[in-house]
Amino acid sequence: MRTSARLRRYLLLLERVRRPCSFAELRDHLDQYGLALSTRTLHRDIEQIRDELGAEVVYDRPSNTYQLQGPHEAMARTLQLLERAVLGTLLGADAGGIGRASQHVIMEQHGRLSGLAHWPVLLRAIDERRMVRVDYRRFQREHDQRFDLRPHFLKEYQGRWYVLGMAAGYDRPISLGLDRIVGLHPTAQRVPAKEKDMVRDLYAHVIGVDTSGGEPQSIRLKFTALQGRYVKALPLHPSQQVIQDDADGCVVDLFVVPNMELEQALLALGSSVEVVRPAGLAGKLRRMHAAAGLRKP
Predict the structure, then answer these.
(1) Which stretches of the chain drop beneath a pLDDT of 50?
(2) Helix (H, G, I), strand (E, B) or coil at 59
(3) Where in the chain is the domain with CATH 2.30.30?
(4) Looking at the domain 116-203, which fold is it?
(5) Range 19-28 burial, b when 16+ CB lie within 10 A, else e
(6) Which residues pair with 69 in a beta bridge?
(7) Could you tell me which residues come within 8 angstroms of residue 123 by beta carbon, excluding any fewer than 6 positions away?
């Protein structure tokens, strides 16, 4: 069986079983995309999805339905990577398919995923828990900086990839943009397994990669009714909870680090969002709006 068809079927199955559905509904869903599904194929796919992707699709006998189970965030990451793999297979194995598609596709210009060549080395180092020596060129520095990095995660944010981990001389996890890495050297030094949980816990409350905002806080935002629809469809953060949603507006709570990326996201929304609390963040954004209005063109 072709890998492209198998990955497409995995993706379609996982998208559909995020909500309980019967075998007939699954079969009809795949049939819309020209993919056949038999009971035998479904059972084989469920087993392979569990073994290959770590995703658990469970059959509930009383309701005669299938549903995806497991941590929501982990499944979201799996689906995002699977979507990209499927896109690659849809474009074909030769460069001609990419060239033809480029004539009909409009993409964001703020990021070109530079630094992806470092993915294999970093992913292997993370998997084998090994330190890497990184030569890094920051935007604000003329000279390269060397890090003895204990990598734990790769994270994408606004078209750029970052490696997250601990480094010698730093008491908190740091992030390095892959596009700014000018040298990467694996080492034999092992990385403590317990560090991974600390890095994960910190970045679980971070929008973007900036951790300099201190500890996570409860942040309440009020959006206009129209903007609230977009925020519900594309949450600012996994911690987002809708508190109020009516004609007067949409109020949500976040539990995040009040960092630069959060400020930038809120500033970009202009008058369609109001910071209800904390007062410090609300005041800071008001000053930033005022300062922007005073700048001469």
Answers:
(1) 1
(2) strand
(3) 116-203
(4) SH3 type barrels. (2.30.30)
(5) eebeeeebbe
(6) 56
(7) 154
